[in-house]
Design a protein that fits this description.
- The complex is a heterodimer of chains A (about 100) and B (about 150).
- Chain A has about 100 residues and is mainly alpha-helical.
- Chain A contains 3 helices and no strands.
- Chain B is built from 4 helices and no strands.
- In chain B, helix 1 packs across helix 2 and helix 3 packs antiparallel against helix 4.
- The longest helix of chain B is centred in the middle third of the chain and has 36 residues.
- Classes of the chains: A mainly alpha (about 100), B mainly alpha (about 150).
Chain lengths: ~100, ~150
Amino acid sequence: MTARAPKTALTFAAIAALLSIPATYAIQRLVQDALFPDPNPALVTASLRIAMFWRLEVSLPIALVIGIGTHAAAQRNAALVARVLEPALYASASLLVLQSILRP
Amino acid sequence: MNELWLRVLERVHGHLGWLSVVALLHPVIVLRRPRRRARLATALATGIVTLAFVLGTVVYPSYRLLLKQAIFRTNPRIGWLFERKEHLAVGVLAFAWVGLVAHWLSFGLGTNDDADLRARVERIAQRGYAVSFALGVAVGVIGVTVAVFKTF
């Protein structure tokens, strides 16, 4: 590890935490749709509890945990984490797009 | 919130949304060059995206109460389009912040043996903005489509 290592680990942790938010948001929506499908929106008045907001609220602590895990991993092997982050960006974006198209 | 305020906020949200799409294109282009610094461009683009998103969340509860059911009754395809917009907007915001954080934190890397790591972080910053821009275009087009169909 170099003198830059703490900053490197922090950088990767922040990026990983942010990248996890769209993915966990999409996964929550997919699980919600599979287990508790919405009633027909044309027939019911929208609930005051807004799913988009609570999906984001749930995503934040998960992002924190992923950030902490990534920080620990980057301190051990920063090069490996760096290689994983870019594919993770595409995976997170693809998951969100697929969920939006297939299970809006 | 009365209807006049909703109409004003909705329009400001829409215009800011398209402005943010244009602003996102700037870092997508300039960050293609390695070691390029674009602090102001990234801060402005991400700031405008965040502001547009926050305004959207202010208007969204009223959309659900006043418009959603009516839209689904008359044209469910438009209604589902709006649901897609809501999800994709989360991506626009998150990936813009990925770009901002990666770009700003990349300045602290890049000496000696960290050069490769810095190059990877710079690429993540550019790709983050590229993804955010692409999703932003989709969100903007859907937003206009829904607004043309029904508005406050």
